[in-house]
Amino acid sequence: MIVYHGPVKKVEQYFSGLGITVPDRVNPPDHFIDILEGIVKPNGGVTHQQLPVRWMLHNGYPVPSDMLQYIDGDATSLAGNVADPGAEDTGQSFAGDLWEDMMCNVELKRDYIEHNFIRSDLSNRLTPGITCQYRYFLGRVGKQRLREARIQAVDYLILLVAGACLGTLAKVSDETFGSLGYTYTVIAVSLLCKIAALRSFALDKLLYKRESASGMSSLAYFLAKDTVDDFNTIIKPLVYLSMFYFFNNPRSSFTDNYIVLLCLVYCVTGIAYVLAIFLEPTPAQLWSVILPVILTLIATQDKDSLAMKHFGHFFYTSWALEAFVISNAERYSGVWLITRCESLMESGYDLDDWAQCLLCLILFGIVSRIVAFFVMVTFKQK
Hints:
This protein is mostly helical. The protein is 68% helix and 0% strand. The longest helix has 31 residues, at 87-117.
């Protein structure tokens, strides 16, 4: 039974209108819950059984016939809709209830956004600034990562094995500039790095809710997590290339491959943040596996295909593949480059677009992090 549904700021105002006041040095939510459970007798002359009826009459809802006995003398003046509701009255009460519920959710969402962006601390306490909180969270997240050293080592080991296997299976072909090996690389690195990045936010959702409700800076919390994860962003491309590059032996330099992989890992880490925050752990893991495979398969299609023609620029995999192929093609010179230009043109790649591909990957990473932060401070998961 509902006795109140609305903004937190109006709870005490509503109950005080019923004559129920909170004693000094007593937590209001605890006091109201004790009243609802019948542990504490209300001091307003009403019983806890009458509170649902008072809420119905306060909003103009019809009172069911089996609850008419709880209408006391003070509430008789409000009981204009006491009769058992007909079809027309039920429709009106449902519409009013729906509108009230919608407005309540809007106010709650507004209060939550204001709490994160427009802070007004009414307790006159000295709250640390964003910079101070960022340093604190940076130390805490760093300690958490050190305690997860075994899990991190397993991630690196899997990347080593993946690099050795894919480097052995996908040999460089002069006709395709090694695009097959790079296709496998984009899928493997995206999948493994996304799965690992999910742990950054998926495991701490409850802790974040509690601390943000106590005045924690969401921006400092998010930046600290991302800063510590940047260590993996730098190291994981080195770990993968240490095996893939020497088994695959592409024409492009180790530095060029590392730069492309660095941008790719930065991109997919931001996407993993969005999945971890917006979805539950199981569907987040599922999408982390499905997305790289589907997007990479689409990116390998002909540039004139419907998907690539209209949506190719929105797939990070297409930019990553193009950057890898261009870095490999730039190492061909003279007659070798001339004879391979046809293959490069069929793929729709341009040797001058290497920096553009890297920039697009970085932009994907930045935008995905902005989206992840927005989702974190606006959407409450159950």
